[in-house]
């Protein structure tokens, strides 16, 4: 049977025990590990921070239980009427860290 994880969350994030707890539990580190370890997998991420999903292949935006939009983030960012685009612009104004994300660089929006 397929197994997504084996053992503890910490053990899956740092199987070689290379990093101290203070580094393991940083969101940025967790996202890097997920992207690296699951690069050939389908990952369903439910997120409230844009930097968690901006580099995804596809984005599904839900609103009041309905699908609002579904496409590649770069395509959604090109549409000014896109909910994802509006949320991204709002988020980027509030977060300096977000400006370094891959999708924003691809769009030249930084």
TrEMBL record:
This protein's record includes keyword ATP-binding: yes
Gene Ontology annotations for the cellular component aspect, listed alphabetically: membrane
Keywords of this entry: ATP-binding, Nucleotide-binding
Cross-referenced InterPro entries: ABC_transporter_C-like (IPR050173), P-loop_NTPase (IPR027417)
Taxonomy of the source species: Eukaryota, Viridiplantae, Streptophyta, Embryophyta, Tracheophyta
Source species: Oryza glaberrima (African rice)
Protein name: ABC transporter domain-containing protein
Gene Ontology molecular function, alphabetical: ATP binding; ATPase-coupled transmembrane transporter activity
């Amino acid at each position: 049977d397929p197994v997504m994880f084996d053992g503890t969350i910490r053990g899956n994030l740092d199987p070689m025990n290379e990093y101290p707890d203070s580094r393991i539990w940083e969101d940025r580190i967790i996202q890097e590990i997920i992207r690296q370890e699951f690069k050939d997998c389908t990952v369903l991420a439910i997120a409230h921070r844009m930097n968690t999903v901006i580099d995804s292949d596809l984005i599904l935006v839900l609103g009041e239980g309905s699908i609002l939009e579904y496409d590649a983030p770069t395509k959604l960012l090109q549409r000014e009427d896109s909910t994802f685009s509006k949320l991204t612009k709002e988020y980027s104004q509030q977060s300096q860290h977000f400006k370094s994300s891959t999708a924003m660089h691809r769009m030249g929006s930084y």
